[in-house]
Design brief:
This protein is 32% helix and 10% strand. By secondary structure, the protein is an alpha+beta fold. The chain has one domain.
Length: 91
Amino acid sequence: MTSCFTCGVSWSDSHVSLDCSECGGYALERPCPECDGVCGAVWKRDLSMSHASSKARWEGKCSKQQKPKGNLTSSVSQELSLKLEKLSANS
C-alpha cells in the first residue's frame, strides 16, 4: 500500500504530511539523506519498514565518495559553517 498508515495521505499522489514521522517529509522518493542530496542520488521509500516502524525508512546509496571519518567530520563541519554564514548574511 502506497499511503501512510499514520496520517492517511497518499504517497503515490505525491502527498505528504510534514509533521508525520512515518511520512518523514517525503512521499515515495527523496534526495540522499546521507549528504542532503549533494550527490544527486534519489532514495526510494522502504514501504514495509516505514509501515512496520511508523517512521520513514529509505533504500538507496550515497553516490559521493566516502572519505575516512576524520575528513568526513571536517568536511561536514566546513559545510555547516558555510551554511551558517550564508544564513547569517541572508538574515
